[in-house]
Design brief:
335 residues, alpha/beta, DNA polymerase, domain 1, TIM Barrel, ten-stranded mixed beta sheet, elongated, binds S-adenosyl-L-homocysteine
């Protein structure tokens, strides 16, 4: 295995050149890329347009694809736990809706940000996922028969702290020859890592951006999300406005409603003031109970109505997956 190439790390062009380097014609790379990303067939021997002799040669160059996983089926969503070769668990969730299936993808094992309400941060940060491990989550969902229409980087971890691998995985899944998921069908959710948002802009990736806001003033936000100490609301909103302007992608602000913490009338007023003059979209999220002491707010409807009256774009997120610990903030790669 040592020294063998990892096929899931290559985009289409790179795979073609690896094939040529290893003595295969480029058109075979196309066939293999299609088998993997269009049909979720990852074993060379099962690729019927590839001869047995070629399959054997390929398996001397490329390491076998490791898709070792367990499936948990809930009322509405399905969760997959992938086992990494170094024995960590990676979780991803298929969330069906009338507009197709969304795959919620993890980008790190654990998370360094320690937001007080989130289960993923509890065990601390373990490591970044490789681009191949990110792409594998898609392949597992496809292998289990799910067409995937949208990818949201909203699973375990902070995608903008593992941006190179997230972008590599995104460009691989975006390939027309393969999964062909359009750029506007990807959403990156971030706790507000300003340099990461700037890097997205520099690299010209026009992805939908969701920002975990959860509080409309710095004092409360820092208490809930320590990263706010470093990246304050004012600076964050400056870069969000730039992102909106440069990409014309919609910006969503996620707001988890926590009982007695960020759900008062004063919070509403501050939130309205904060988003004034923008067309950002606020997504209210019911809190999923975890091992923390936070509780779900009972003020969701009131919050929603008042924001609507103030002419703010606002929606309520349906919470799904709670029955199988697959909802927002509940993923921690338990094995
Ligand atoms: N690190 C990124 C990606 C994680 S996305 C980010 O912070 O955006 C997960 C989303 O679920 C974030 O908005 C997070 O704040 C939210 N979340 C975390 N714990 C939750 C919980 N218990 N209930 C509901 N949402 C939660």
């Amino acid at each position: 295995m040592i020294g063998m190439l990892k096929i899931l790390e290559y985009n289409f062009k790179e795979l073609q050149s690896e094939f040529v380097k290893n003595g295969f014609p480029a058109y075979k790379a196309k066939q293999v890329f299609e088998w993997i990303y269009q049909k979720a067939v990852t074993d060379f021997v099962k690729m019927t347009s590839i001869s047995f002799a070629d399959a054997k040669k390929l398996s001397e160059v490329f390491a076998p694809i490791n898709l070792d996983y367990e499936r948990t089926t809930g009322n509405t969503s399905v969760k997959f736990l992938l086992n990494t070769t170094d024995d960590f668990g990676i979780e991803c969730v298929v969330i069906p809706s009338k507009n197709g299936n969304t795959l919620c993808v993890s980008t790190q094992v654990g998370c360094a940000l320690k937001c007080g309400f989130c289960e993923t941060g509890k065990g601390g940060f373990k490591r970044d996922l490789t681009s191949a491990e990110i792409v594998s989550q898609y392949l597992v969902a496809r292998a289990e028969g799910y067409e995937i229409d949208r990818i949201v980087y909203m699973g375990m971890g902070e995608p903008l702290l593992n941006l190179d691998n997230v972008l590599k995985a995104t460009s691989i899944l975006n390939e027309e020859t393969g999964a062909n998921i359009g750029m506007r069908r990807f959403t990156v959710s971030t706790a507000g890592i300003i340099p990461g948002i700037k890097k997205l802009l520099e690299k010209g990736f026009k992805l939908n951006l969701a920002v975990s806001l959860h509080a409309a003033n710095d004092g409360l936000r820092t208490k809930l999300m320590p990263i706010n100490e470093k990246y304050r609301l004012n600076d964050l909103f400056v870069v969000l406005a730039e992102y909106r302007e440069a990409t014309s992608r919609r910006i969503t602000l996620e707001y988890v409603l926590l009982d007695g913490v960020n759900d008062t009338d004063r919070d509403i007023e501050q939130l309205v003031a904060l988003v004034k003059g923008t067309d950002f979209h606020i997504n209210l999220i019911p809190y999923n109970t975890t091992s923390s002491s936070f509780k779900a707010s009972k003020n969701m409807d009131r919050f929603f109505d008042k924001l609507e009256k103030a002419k703010v774009n606002v929606t309520k997120r349906r919470s799904e997956g709670g029955d199988i610990s697959a909802a927002c903030g509940m993923l921690f790669g338990k094995k």
